[in-house]
Design a protein that fits this description.
This protein starts with a helix and ends with a helix. It is mostly helical. It has a two-stranded antiparallel ribbon. The chain has two domains: 95 residues, no CATH class; 157 residues, no CATH class.
Length: 276
């Protein structure tokens, strides 16, 4: 009798367990590579901030409205006149640090491009670029961080995994929702929010979108167009309602994740069918 109760308890306990996805070595390596690029970008950002701060301390400022970090900007930096010879040395060191940081970012980006060609999720990247605001790099970062997201039963599970659902403070019959939980993968969430900014413009298939998505499957392009109509319309509706721009973008990012999940689900189904 005791043994039967014990076996029954084990079965009940097993039903409460949640399956955990374990990435393979290649997936881990891809994630390390995209995170290395993010570290390089942070170093580049800091180097640029330090250079800008020094230039301001020397009494110079780049004209407002003109793009920074172009060849014209570098030429202007290198021709600046400082009050003391040692300041010229400091200026050149800062300029060299910015250039070196940019070269490291470019090198890691090239390595990501090469690594994607032999990656099991490489075909999925080509499907995701059909979406507005999603290029090969951002799609690669998302899949490197999240893996095969078709493992989620529905898009809502993915929203929760990403921490893009509202936090809740409830007691009895009272139910209050607050800011997003931010409990998930912060790297993937940041990329999604960056991609979501593109939907502040009216929906249309531009030449850039047509060129980058020319190799994407037809179903991915159809989903991408539905995403544009839905998300661009929602963005404008929330703007007219007086919502904060950051709140709007996070809401758009959450729905964009749903369209990404849909495309990945279709593509992984096609890949598995071909393998069978």
């Amino acid at each position: 009798m005791t043994g039967g109760i014990h076996a029954s308890s084990q079965r009940c306990f097993a039903r409460t367990l949640t399956a955990v996805w374990v990435p393979d070595e290649h997936q881990e390596a891809m994630r390390s590579l995209v995170r290395a690029r993010e570290d390089m970008k942070n170093q580049q950002r800091r180097a640029r901030q330090q250079l800008n701060a020094f230039v301001l301390r020397c009494g110079h400022s780049w004209p407002s409205g003109k793009s920074r970090w172009t060849q014209s900007h570098y030429n202007w930096l290198e021709e600046l006149k400082c009050s003391h010879p040692l300041e010229h040395v400091v200026l050149q060191e800062y300029i060299d640090a910015v250039r070196e940081a940019g070269e490291r970012v470019s090198e890691v980006s090239k390595q990501i491009e090469l690594a994607r060609q032999g990656w099991s999720l490489g075909k999925v990247v080509e499907a995701l670029v059909a979406l507005r605001g999603v290029d090969r790099l951002s799609a690669t970062i998302l899949l490197a961080e999240l893996g095969d997201i078709s493992r989620f039963e529905d898009a809502k599970q993915l929203f929760s995994y990403l921490g893009l659902v509202p936090s809740e403070y409830s007691s009895g019959e009272k139910r209050n929702q607050g800011k997003i939980t931010r409990a998930g993968n912060s790297h993937a969430r940041r990329i999604l929010v960056e991609c979501a900014w593109s939907y502040r413009f009216p929906p249309r298939v531009t030449g850039h979108i047509r060129r980058k998505s020319k190799d994407a499957p037809d179903y991915a392009q159809q989903i991408a167009w539905r995403a544009q109509k839905r998300l661009c319309g929602r963005y404008m509706k929330m703007v007219l309602a007086g919502k904060n721009a950051k709140v709007i973008t996070v809401a758009i990012a959450r729905e964009l994740a749903g369209f990404i999940w849909d495309i990945v689900r279709h593509e992984m189904g096609a890949i598995n069918k071909e393998a069978a």
